[in-house]
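It would be a great kindness if you could assist me with a short task in structural biology. The matter concerns a single protein, recorded as an amino acid sequence and a row of backbone structure tokens. The record follows directly beneath this note:
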Amino acid sequence: MSSIWPRVLQCVVLAIPLMLLAAACGDSGSGTPVTGASIEPSFPPPTASSTPPATPAAGLTEYTVQPGDTLYSIAARFGVSVAAVAAANGIADISEITAGQVLTIPSSGVAAPTPAPVPFTPAPASGAPADVLSKAVNPDRRIVAFSFDAGSDVGYASQILDVLASNGIHASFGMTGRWAEQNPDLLKRIVRERHSLINHTYDHDSFTGRSTGAAALAQGQRWEELDRTEAIINELTGASTKPFFRPPYGDFDDSVNADVGARGYAYNVMWTVDSRGWTGIPASQIIQRCLDLAAPGAIYVFHVGSASQDGPALQSIIDGLRTQGYAIGSVPDMLAP
């Protein structure tokens, strides 16, 4: 009996390879042999890299800066604060962002959906037409008002503020909403140092089109320019531009005075003396012009932008006016009894 088992085991061992070979060479579906095929080892399919692609952290999203964007407008779009966006991206100067820059937006990071347009319905007038100011109500007072329009680049704004501070002068600043967005620190300094503000619209579009050749803005468009600027300045500083308005390019008519008056702007602040620094004339000509045209109650208009030499001329103008016996103040200072 013991001699049979080795033979049985031998047969079993020999049979197993034959069975496996038959299974490998047959088509399981029809039993037809497959000729000319080679048997390749089977491996599991390759798996994806174990390192996942980088994604923003939970609660964050990314936004690519578009031409014309400011940090303020981006923050408003996503419903977060300017400070939060600046901190999330290590931005020290919030005016220094460039088109194409990728920003990390904190909090929900989800832009508010754009609402469907609503037809504009003019609100009833809430105020009398604005009074046009080009000189003081009381010309017997030997005082002149300084006003500086800020609507282009930052230019000499810091230097102008330094000169005003060193001379103890409070002035008025015609502020566009776009300049305020782009230069919030300077805006805050203007308010902190007790200068008054004039609403110079958001982006300096002519309300009448007289100087630009464009169509006149409709009442709703004019109100949007005013309201947007007022909201930006109020949010950044808590200050208001009311009741002072200055028309871009000095373009206005009766309809403009009626429309701004209805929005709470009682004064359309024009000027008596234009330094004309914006034309590119040298500082020496600016100084001479401003001193020659001095008169009690005069309102001066200067510009802070780098295209004008008003900033470098300012100290000499102050010295010359004081030598002539003039006090220097803001538009509200001139209106005071």
The chain has two domains: 61-105, 132-335. The mean pLDDT is 81. The first strand starts at residue 61 and ends at 64. The CA atoms of residues 164 and 170 lie 7 Å apart.
